[in-house]
Protein backbone atom coordinates (compact mmCIF):
# COMPACT_ATOMS: atom_id res chain seq x y z
CA UNK A 1 0.00 0.00 0.00
CA UNK A 2 1.27 3.45 -0.62
CA UNK A 3 0.22 7.00 -0.28
CA UNK A 4 2.20 9.80 -1.78
CA UNK A 5 3.78 11.17 1.31
CA UNK A 6 7.46 11.86 1.79
CA UNK A 7 9.46 9.51 3.95
CA UNK A 8 11.75 12.34 4.89
CA UNK A 9 10.88 15.93 5.18
CA UNK A 10 13.79 18.25 5.86
CA UNK A 11 12.56 21.31 7.63
CA UNK A 12 11.71 24.29 5.46
CA UNK A 13 12.92 22.72 2.22
CA UNK A 14 10.67 22.43 -0.81
CA UNK A 15 9.85 18.82 -1.52
CA UNK A 16 10.79 17.38 -4.86
CA UNK A 17 10.16 13.76 -4.13
CA UNK A 18 8.35 11.67 -6.68
CA UNK A 19 5.17 9.79 -6.05
CA UNK A 20 6.95 6.50 -6.36
CA UNK A 21 9.46 7.29 -3.66
CA UNK A 22 6.58 8.36 -1.43
CA UNK A 23 5.02 5.07 -2.30
CA UNK A 24 8.14 3.15 -1.35
CA UNK A 25 8.18 4.84 2.01
CA UNK A 26 4.60 3.88 2.67
CA UNK A 27 5.14 0.36 1.51
CA UNK A 28 7.81 0.19 4.14
CA UNK A 29 5.46 1.54 6.78
CA UNK A 30 2.78 -0.85 5.66
CA UNK A 31 5.12 -3.82 6.00
CA UNK A 32 5.82 -2.77 9.57
CA UNK A 33 2.11 -2.56 10.25
CA UNK A 34 1.53 -5.92 8.64
CA UNK A 35 4.27 -7.35 10.82
CA UNK A 36 2.32 -6.07 13.82
CA UNK A 37 -0.70 -8.02 12.65
CA UNK A 38 -2.82 -4.88 12.77
CA UNK A 39 -6.49 -5.30 11.95
CA UNK A 40 -8.08 -2.86 9.62
CA UNK A 41 -10.70 -0.78 11.37
CA UNK A 42 -14.32 -1.47 10.78
CA UNK A 43 -13.76 -4.94 9.37
CA UNK A 44 -16.21 -6.32 11.91
CA UNK A 45 -18.84 -4.06 10.35
CA UNK A 46 -18.28 -5.50 6.89
CA UNK A 47 -21.35 -7.18 5.57
CA UNK A 48 -20.63 -10.32 3.62
CA UNK A 49 -20.92 -9.49 -0.05
CA UNK A 50 -23.64 -11.28 -1.93
CA UNK A 51 -22.26 -11.67 -5.40
CA UNK A 52 -24.09 -12.45 -8.53
CA UNK A 53 -22.61 -12.43 -11.98
CA UNK A 54 -23.88 -9.77 -14.28
CA UNK A 55 -26.00 -10.52 -17.28
CA UNK A 56 -25.68 -10.22 -20.96
CA UNK A 57 -24.27 -6.89 -21.99
CA UNK A 58 -21.86 -6.68 -24.82
CA UNK A 59 -18.33 -6.16 -23.64
CA UNK A 60 -17.20 -2.62 -23.86
CA UNK A 61 -13.64 -1.73 -24.63
CA UNK A 62 -12.76 1.79 -25.39
CA UNK A 63 -10.22 4.47 -25.40
CA UNK A 64 -11.47 7.68 -23.92
CA UNK A 65 -9.53 10.78 -24.63
CA UNK A 66 -9.01 13.30 -21.89
CA UNK A 67 -7.29 16.67 -22.05
CA UNK A 68 -3.68 16.56 -20.94
CA UNK A 69 -3.01 18.77 -18.00
CA UNK A 70 0.01 19.26 -15.84
CA UNK A 71 -0.01 17.71 -12.42
CA UNK A 72 -0.42 20.04 -9.51
CA UNK A 73 2.93 21.30 -8.25
CA UNK A 74 3.94 20.05 -4.88
CA UNK A 75 3.81 22.66 -2.21
CA UNK A 76 6.74 23.51 0.00
CA UNK A 77 6.96 21.41 3.09
CA UNK A 78 6.29 22.69 6.55
CA UNK A 79 8.27 21.63 9.58
CA UNK A 80 6.98 18.54 11.29
CA UNK A 81 5.09 19.20 14.46
CA UNK A 82 2.99 17.16 16.79
CA UNK A 83 0.07 16.55 16.19
CA UNK A 84 0.16 15.60 12.53
CA UNK A 85 0.14 18.65 10.30
CA UNK A 86 -1.78 18.46 7.04
CA UNK A 87 0.31 18.78 3.91
CA UNK A 88 -1.46 20.34 0.98
CA UNK A 89 -1.11 18.97 -2.56
CA UNK A 90 -0.10 15.44 -1.73
CA UNK A 91 -1.92 13.08 -4.02
CA UNK A 92 -3.06 9.66 -2.93
CA UNK A 93 -1.48 7.31 -5.44
CA UNK A 94 -2.84 4.12 -3.99
CA UNK A 95 -6.56 4.64 -3.69
CA UNK A 96 -9.28 6.50 -5.52
CA UNK A 97 -13.00 7.14 -5.43
CA UNK A 98 -15.73 6.62 -8.00
CA UNK A 99 -19.21 8.05 -7.51
CA UNK A 100 -22.66 7.40 -8.74
CA UNK A 101 -24.43 10.75 -9.15
CA UNK A 102 -28.22 10.57 -8.69
CA UNK A 103 -29.12 9.84 -5.09
CA UNK A 104 -25.49 10.22 -3.98
CA UNK A 105 -24.42 13.71 -5.03
CA UNK A 106 -27.51 15.14 -6.73
CA UNK A 107 -31.20 14.68 -6.14
CA UNK A 108 -33.90 16.38 -8.20
CA UNK A 109 -31.36 18.68 -9.86
CA UNK A 110 -30.00 19.90 -6.51
CA UNK A 111 -26.82 18.87 -4.73
CA UNK A 112 -27.28 16.71 -1.67
CA UNK A 113 -25.98 19.05 1.08
CA UNK A 114 -23.06 16.87 2.15
CA UNK A 115 -21.87 16.39 -1.45
CA UNK A 116 -20.20 19.79 -1.73
CA UNK A 117 -18.29 19.18 1.47
CA UNK A 118 -17.34 15.66 0.33
CA UNK A 119 -15.74 17.05 -2.82
CA UNK A 120 -13.75 19.53 -0.73
CA UNK A 121 -12.47 16.71 1.44
CA UNK A 122 -11.31 14.83 -1.67
CA UNK A 123 -9.65 17.95 -3.00
CA UNK A 124 -7.35 18.19 -0.01
CA UNK A 125 -9.47 19.72 2.75
CA UNK A 126 -8.93 16.82 5.09
CA UNK A 127 -6.82 16.41 8.15
CA UNK A 128 -4.05 14.77 6.16
CA UNK A 129 -4.04 17.38 3.39
CA UNK A 130 -4.14 14.69 0.76
CA UNK A 131 -5.87 15.00 -2.59
CA UNK A 132 -7.67 11.89 -3.73
CA UNK A 133 -8.37 11.18 -7.43
CA UNK A 134 -12.02 10.52 -8.28
CA UNK A 135 -14.31 9.89 -11.22
CA UNK A 136 -18.07 9.82 -11.79
CA UNK A 137 -19.91 6.82 -13.13
CA UNK A 138 -23.61 7.40 -13.68
CA UNK A 139 -26.20 5.36 -15.50
CA UNK A 140 -28.03 8.60 -16.35
CA UNK A 141 -27.70 10.30 -19.68
CA UNK A 142 -29.51 12.21 -22.40
CA UNK A 143 -27.00 15.05 -22.65
CA UNK A 144 -23.55 15.56 -24.05
CA UNK A 145 -20.92 14.55 -21.50
CA UNK A 146 -19.55 18.10 -21.60
CA UNK A 147 -22.98 19.53 -20.73
CA UNK A 148 -23.49 17.19 -17.84
CA UNK A 149 -20.02 18.01 -16.53
CA UNK A 150 -20.81 21.71 -16.70
CA UNK A 151 -24.00 21.16 -14.69
CA UNK A 152 -22.16 19.03 -12.17
CA UNK A 153 -19.40 21.62 -11.83
CA UNK A 154 -21.95 24.25 -10.84
CA UNK A 155 -23.89 21.97 -8.54
CA UNK A 156 -20.84 20.67 -6.69
CA UNK A 157 -18.76 23.86 -6.85
CA UNK A 158 -15.79 22.10 -8.44
CA UNK A 159 -14.43 21.66 -11.95
CA UNK A 160 -15.67 18.38 -13.39
CA UNK A 161 -13.98 17.32 -16.61
CA UNK A 162 -15.33 14.90 -19.24
CA UNK A 163 -12.06 13.08 -18.56
CA UNK A 164 -13.45 11.92 -15.24
CA UNK A 165 -17.02 11.24 -16.31
CA UNK A 166 -18.87 8.24 -17.71
CA UNK A 167 -22.62 8.26 -18.30
CA UNK A 168 -24.94 5.47 -19.38
CA UNK A 169 -24.52 5.95 -23.09
CA UNK A 170 -20.79 6.80 -23.14
CA UNK A 171 -19.82 3.20 -24.02
CA UNK A 172 -22.25 3.24 -26.97
CA UNK A 173 -19.75 5.32 -28.92
CA UNK A 174 -17.92 2.05 -29.48
CA UNK A 175 -20.76 0.91 -31.73
CA UNK A 176 -20.82 3.87 -34.08
CA UNK A 177 -18.78 2.11 -36.74
CA UNK A 178 -20.59 -1.16 -36.43
CA UNK A 179 -24.03 -0.13 -37.66
CA UNK A 180 -25.40 2.02 -40.46
CA UNK A 181 -28.99 3.06 -39.78
CA UNK A 182 -29.93 2.93 -36.10
CA UNK A 183 -32.97 3.89 -34.04
CA UNK A 184 -32.07 6.09 -31.05
CA UNK A 185 -34.70 6.33 -28.31
CA UNK A 186 -35.07 8.61 -25.28
CA UNK A 187 -34.13 12.02 -23.99
CA UNK A 188 -35.41 15.53 -24.62
CA UNK A 189 -36.18 16.61 -28.17
CA UNK A 190 -33.40 15.90 -30.63
CA UNK A 191 -30.69 15.78 -27.96
CA UNK A 192 -29.96 12.07 -28.12
CA UNK A 193 -29.77 12.13 -31.91
CA UNK A 194 -27.19 14.93 -31.57
CA UNK A 195 -25.23 12.95 -28.98
CA UNK A 196 -25.32 9.80 -31.14
CA UNK A 197 -24.09 11.73 -34.16
CA UNK A 198 -21.31 13.25 -32.06
CA UNK A 199 -20.28 9.66 -31.26
CA UNK A 200 -19.97 9.00 -34.99
CA UNK A 201 -23.25 7.25 -35.75
CA UNK A 202 -23.89 7.96 -39.41
CA UNK A 203 -27.64 7.55 -39.82
CA UNK A 204 -29.73 8.13 -36.71
CA UNK A 205 -33.49 7.61 -36.90
CA UNK A 206 -35.72 8.67 -33.98
CA UNK A 207 -39.25 7.60 -33.05
CA UNK A 208 -40.29 11.12 -34.14
CA UNK A 209 -39.07 10.40 -37.69
CA UNK A 210 -41.20 7.25 -37.81
CA UNK A 211 -44.28 9.02 -36.40
CA UNK A 212 -43.81 11.78 -38.95
CA UNK A 213 -43.64 9.21 -41.75
CA UNK A 214 -46.74 7.35 -40.53
CA UNK A 215 -48.95 9.07 -37.96
CA UNK A 216 -50.90 5.82 -37.43
CA UNK A 217 -47.86 4.16 -35.83
CA UNK A 218 -48.95 5.27 -32.35
CA UNK A 219 -52.66 6.15 -32.42
CA UNK A 220 -52.61 8.35 -29.31
CA UNK A 221 -49.39 10.22 -29.96
CA UNK A 222 -49.45 13.41 -31.96
CA UNK A 223 -46.20 15.20 -32.69
CA UNK A 224 -46.10 18.83 -31.61
CA UNK A 225 -45.33 21.41 -34.28
CA UNK A 226 -41.76 21.67 -33.09
CA UNK A 227 -41.35 17.89 -33.03
CA UNK A 228 -42.79 17.63 -36.51
CA UNK A 229 -40.41 20.29 -37.79
CA UNK A 230 -37.37 18.70 -36.10
CA UNK A 231 -38.17 15.16 -37.21
CA UNK A 232 -36.64 14.04 -40.49
CA UNK A 233 -38.28 12.91 -43.68
CA UNK A 234 -37.22 9.28 -43.72
CA UNK A 235 -38.21 8.47 -47.31
CA UNK A 236 -36.44 11.49 -48.78
CA UNK A 237 -33.38 11.01 -46.60
CA UNK A 238 -33.02 7.37 -47.59
CA UNK A 239 -34.11 7.81 -51.20
CA UNK A 240 -36.78 5.21 -50.45
CA UNK A 241 -40.22 4.75 -51.96
CA UNK A 242 -41.70 3.05 -48.94
CA UNK A 243 -40.80 2.65 -45.31
CA UNK A 244 -40.14 -1.07 -45.74
CA UNK A 245 -37.12 -0.14 -47.86
CA UNK A 246 -35.49 1.27 -44.72
CA UNK A 247 -33.63 -1.19 -42.49
CA UNK A 248 -32.92 -0.42 -38.83
CA UNK A 249 -29.70 -2.28 -37.99
CA UNK A 250 -29.79 -1.71 -34.23
CA UNK A 251 -31.84 0.02 -31.55
CA UNK A 252 -30.13 2.12 -28.86
CA UNK A 253 -32.10 3.41 -25.89
CA UNK A 254 -29.81 6.29 -24.96
CA UNK A 255 -31.86 7.87 -22.19
CA UNK A 256 -35.21 7.56 -20.46
CA UNK A 257 -38.17 7.59 -22.82
CA UNK A 258 -40.34 10.71 -22.66
CA UNK A 259 -43.28 8.85 -24.12
CA UNK A 260 -43.27 5.22 -23.09
CA UNK A 261 -46.36 4.15 -25.06
CA UNK A 262 -45.23 5.28 -28.51
CA UNK A 263 -41.59 4.34 -27.92
CA UNK A 264 -42.65 0.89 -26.73
CA UNK A 265 -44.80 0.43 -29.82
CA UNK A 266 -41.98 1.45 -32.16
CA UNK A 267 -39.33 -0.67 -30.43
CA UNK A 268 -41.63 -3.71 -30.54
CA UNK A 269 -42.58 -3.09 -34.18
CA UNK A 270 -38.92 -3.18 -35.16
CA UNK A 271 -38.13 -6.10 -32.86
CA UNK A 272 -40.88 -8.08 -34.62
CA UNK A 273 -39.97 -6.94 -38.15
CA UNK A 274 -38.36 -8.83 -41.00
CA UNK A 275 -34.69 -8.11 -40.35
CA UNK A 276 -35.29 -4.58 -39.09
CA UNK A 277 -37.33 -3.42 -42.12
CA UNK A 278 -39.82 -0.77 -40.99
CA UNK A 279 -43.51 -1.68 -41.18
CA UNK A 280 -42.87 -5.37 -41.85
CA UNK A 281 -43.75 -8.35 -39.67
CA UNK A 282 -41.59 -11.40 -39.26
CA UNK A 283 -43.21 -14.82 -39.39
CA UNK A 284 -40.64 -16.26 -37.03
CA UNK A 285 -40.04 -13.29 -34.69
CA UNK A 286 -36.36 -14.06 -34.47
CA UNK A 287 -34.83 -11.72 -37.01
CA UNK A 288 -35.11 -8.31 -35.39
CA UNK A 289 -32.04 -6.13 -34.84
CA UNK A 290 -30.12 -6.06 -31.54
CA UNK A 291 -31.53 -3.77 -28.86
CA UNK A 292 -29.21 -1.97 -26.44
CA UNK A 293 -30.23 -0.09 -23.31
CA UNK A 294 -27.73 2.31 -21.78
CA UNK A 295 -28.49 0.83 -18.37
CA UNK A 296 -30.85 -1.45 -16.52
CA UNK A 297 -31.98 0.55 -13.47
CA UNK A 298 -35.62 -0.17 -12.73
CA UNK A 299 -35.68 2.65 -10.17
CA UNK A 300 -33.76 5.86 -9.75
CA UNK A 301 -33.68 8.65 -7.21
CA UNK A 302 -35.37 11.85 -8.41
CA UNK A 303 -37.02 14.76 -6.59
CA UNK A 304 -40.07 12.70 -5.55
CA UNK A 305 -40.10 11.20 -2.08
CA UNK A 306 -40.18 7.68 -3.57
CA UNK A 307 -37.85 6.31 -6.26
CA UNK A 308 -39.10 6.70 -9.86
CA UNK A 309 -39.26 4.17 -12.68
CA UNK A 310 -36.23 4.07 -14.93
CA UNK A 311 -35.13 2.54 -18.20
CA UNK A 312 -34.78 -0.93 -16.70
CA UNK A 313 -38.56 -0.97 -16.27
CA UNK A 314 -39.03 -0.18 -19.96
CA UNK A 315 -36.59 -2.94 -20.82
CA UNK A 316 -38.63 -5.45 -18.84
CA UNK A 317 -41.85 -4.28 -20.47
CA UNK A 318 -40.31 -4.62 -23.95
CA UNK A 319 -39.18 -8.18 -23.24
CA UNK A 320 -42.43 -9.21 -21.55
CA UNK A 321 -44.76 -7.74 -24.16
CA UNK A 322 -42.64 -9.17 -26.97
CA UNK A 323 -43.22 -12.60 -25.48
CA UNK A 324 -46.93 -11.92 -24.96
CA UNK A 325 -47.46 -10.82 -28.55
CA UNK A 326 -45.41 -13.46 -30.35
CA UNK A 327 -46.83 -16.61 -28.85
CA UNK A 328 -44.08 -16.95 -26.30
CA UNK A 329 -40.94 -16.04 -28.28
CA UNK A 330 -38.12 -14.73 -26.09
CA UNK A 331 -36.47 -11.41 -26.79
CA UNK A 332 -32.91 -10.95 -25.55
CA UNK A 333 -31.88 -7.35 -25.14
CA UNK A 334 -28.58 -5.93 -23.89
CA UNK A 335 -27.80 -3.38 -21.20
CA UNK A 336 -24.72 -1.28 -20.56
CA UNK A 337 -24.06 0.68 -17.41
CA UNK A 338 -23.79 -0.56 -13.89
CA UNK A 339 -23.87 -3.36 -12.73
CA UNK A 340 -22.16 -4.66 -15.89
CA UNK A 341 -18.57 -5.46 -15.08
CA UNK A 342 -17.54 -4.18 -18.52
CA UNK A 343 -18.68 -0.72 -17.41
CA UNK A 344 -16.46 -0.92 -14.33
CA UNK A 345 -13.57 -2.06 -16.53
CA UNK A 346 -14.22 0.96 -18.71
CA UNK A 347 -14.13 3.05 -15.51
CA UNK A 348 -10.81 1.51 -14.54
CA UNK A 349 -9.24 2.65 -17.80
CA UNK A 350 -10.71 6.13 -17.43
CA UNK A 351 -9.47 6.39 -13.86
CA UNK A 352 -5.97 5.35 -14.89
CA UNK A 353 -5.92 7.99 -17.59
CA UNK A 354 -7.36 10.63 -15.27
CA UNK A 355 -4.77 9.88 -12.57
CA UNK A 356 -2.02 10.28 -15.13
CA UNK A 357 -3.21 13.46 -16.83
CA UNK A 358 -4.67 15.27 -13.85
CA UNK A 359 -2.48 14.08 -11.01
CA UNK A 360 0.75 13.10 -12.75
CA UNK A 361 0.50 9.51 -11.53
CA UNK A 362 1.96 7.99 -14.66
CA UNK A 363 4.46 5.56 -13.25
CA UNK A 364 2.38 4.10 -10.48
CA UNK A 365 0.35 0.92 -10.46
CA UNK A 366 -3.44 1.15 -10.59
CA UNK A 367 -4.89 2.15 -7.24
CA UNK A 368 -4.94 -0.80 -4.86
CA UNK A 369 -8.41 0.22 -3.74
CA UNK A 370 -11.22 2.00 -5.54
CA UNK A 371 -14.05 3.12 -3.26
CA UNK A 372 -17.32 3.13 -5.13
CA UNK A 373 -20.12 5.16 -3.57
CA UNK A 374 -23.67 4.48 -4.72
CA UNK A 375 -27.31 4.53 -3.63
CA UNK A 376 -28.71 1.56 -5.60
CA UNK A 377 -27.85 -1.94 -4.37
CA UNK A 378 -28.93 -3.59 -7.64
CA UNK A 379 -26.57 -1.57 -9.84
CA UNK A 380 -23.96 0.25 -7.75
CA UNK A 381 -23.29 -2.33 -5.07
CA UNK A 382 -23.87 -5.40 -7.21
CA UNK A 383 -21.52 -4.11 -9.90
CA UNK A 384 -18.81 -3.00 -7.48
CA UNK A 385 -18.87 -6.36 -5.68
CA UNK A 386 -18.81 -8.25 -8.99
CA UNK A 387 -15.86 -6.15 -10.16
CA UNK A 388 -14.11 -6.77 -6.87
CA UNK A 389 -14.54 -10.52 -7.32
CA UNK A 390 -12.73 -10.60 -10.67
CA UNK A 391 -10.32 -7.70 -10.25
CA UNK A 392 -6.74 -7.76 -9.03
CA UNK A 393 -7.26 -4.55 -7.11
CA UNK A 394 -9.92 -3.99 -4.49
CA UNK A 395 -13.29 -2.45 -5.37
CA UNK A 396 -14.87 -1.42 -2.09
CA UNK A 397 -18.62 -0.80 -2.17
CA UNK A 398 -20.19 1.90 0.01
CA UNK A 399 -23.97 2.35 0.12
CA UNK A 400 -25.50 5.71 1.09
CA UNK A 401 -28.97 6.38 2.49
CA UNK A 402 -29.78 9.47 0.41
CA UNK A 403 -31.26 7.75 -2.65
CA UNK A 404 -32.91 4.55 -3.84
CA UNK A 405 -31.87 2.38 -0.89
CA UNK A 406 -34.46 2.51 1.88
CA UNK A 407 -32.80 2.77 5.30
CA UNK A 408 -33.81 -0.02 7.59
CA UNK A 409 -34.34 -2.54 4.80
CA UNK A 410 -31.97 -5.36 3.89
CA UNK A 411 -30.17 -4.42 0.66
CA UNK A 412 -30.38 -7.16 -1.93
CA UNK A 413 -26.66 -6.77 -2.65
CA UNK A 414 -24.63 -6.13 0.46
CA UNK A 415 -22.16 -3.23 0.59
CA UNK A 416 -18.85 -3.42 2.40
CA UNK A 417 -19.97 -0.34 4.29
CA UNK A 418 -23.32 1.36 4.85
CA UNK A 419 -23.21 5.08 5.69
CA UNK A 420 -25.65 8.00 5.86
CA UNK A 421 -24.23 10.34 3.22
CA UNK A 422 -21.50 10.69 0.63
CA UNK A 423 -19.47 12.76 3.09
CA UNK A 424 -19.45 9.84 5.52
CA UNK A 425 -18.43 7.57 2.64
CA UNK A 426 -15.47 9.77 1.72
CA UNK A 427 -14.35 10.12 5.33
CA UNK A 428 -14.67 6.38 5.87
CA UNK A 429 -12.53 5.57 2.83
CA UNK A 430 -9.81 8.07 3.61
CA UNK A 431 -9.62 7.08 7.28
CA UNK A 432 -9.53 3.43 6.35
CA UNK A 433 -6.56 4.13 4.08
CA UNK A 434 -4.80 6.21 6.68
CA UNK A 435 -5.27 3.55 9.29
CA UNK A 436 -3.98 0.90 6.96
CA UNK A 437 -0.98 2.90 6.01
CA UNK A 438 -0.01 4.17 9.39
CA UNK A 439 0.79 7.70 10.23
CA UNK A 440 2.98 9.80 8.06
CA UNK A 441 4.36 11.30 11.17
CA UNK A 442 8.07 11.51 10.94
CA UNK A 443 10.60 11.71 13.71
CA UNK A 444 14.19 12.43 12.93
CA UNK A 445 13.48 11.96 9.25
CA UNK A 446 11.92 8.52 9.71
CA UNK A 447 8.49 7.23 8.88
CA UNK A 448 6.95 5.65 11.90
CA UNK A 449 3.96 3.35 12.12
CA UNK A 450 1.18 3.89 14.63
CA UNK A 451 0.71 1.61 17.57
CA UNK A 452 -2.65 -0.08 18.11
CA UNK A 453 -4.25 2.70 20.16
CA UNK A 454 -3.11 5.44 17.81
CA UNK A 455 -4.25 3.42 14.82
CA UNK A 456 -7.69 3.01 16.35
CA UNK A 457 -7.92 6.73 17.06
CA UNK A 458 -7.02 7.69 13.50
CA UNK A 459 -9.42 5.08 12.19
CA UNK A 460 -12.19 6.69 14.19
CA UNK A 461 -11.34 10.05 12.71
CA UNK A 462 -9.76 11.53 15.79
CA UNK A 463 -6.53 13.51 15.62
CA UNK A 464 -4.79 12.90 18.90
CA UNK A 465 -1.35 14.14 19.78
CA UNK A 466 1.34 11.55 19.29
CA UNK A 467 4.71 10.81 20.77
CA UNK A 468 7.44 8.43 19.69
CA UNK A 469 8.00 5.25 21.67
CA UNK A 470 10.11 2.32 20.56
CA UNK A 471 9.93 3.33 16.93
CA UNK A 472 6.15 3.55 16.99
CA UNK A 473 3.87 6.52 17.35
CA UNK A 474 1.70 6.24 20.38
CA UNK A 475 -0.90 8.54 21.94
CA UNK A 476 0.69 11.29 23.95
MG1 LIG B 1 -28.05 6.52 -8.14
Please provide a written account of the structure.
The chain is of the alpha/beta class. Among the domains are: 89-166 and 340-370 and 390-397, Rossmann fold (3-Layer(aba) Sandwich), CATH 3.40.50.1000; 170-335, HAD superfamily/HAD-like (Rossmann fold, 3-Layer(aba) Sandwich), CATH 3.40.50.1000. Helices cover 32% and strands 14% of the residues. The protein has 13 helices and 21 strands. It has helices at 19-36, 113-122, 145-156, 191-198, 207-213, 225-230, 234-238, 260-271, 311-325, 341-359, 377-390, 422-437, 452-459; strands at residues 90-91, 95-99, 106-107, 110-111, 130-131, 134-137, 165-166, 181-185, 203-205, 250-253, 291-293, 299-300, 308-309, 334-335, 369-374, 394-399, 417-418, 442-443, 446-447, 466-469, 472-475. A six-stranded parallel β-sheet has the order 7-6-2-15-16-17, with helices on both faces. Helix 4 (191-198) links the parallel strand 8 and strand 9 (203-205). Helix 2 runs parallel beside helix 12 (422-437), helix 8 (260-271) packs across helix 9 and helix 12 runs antiparallel to helix 13 (452-459). The longest helix has 19 residues, at 341-359. The chain is elongated, with a radius of gyration of 26 Å. The relative contact order is 0.18. Mean pLDDT is 80; it is low at 1-88 and 439-447. The site of magnesium ion has 10 residues, from loops.
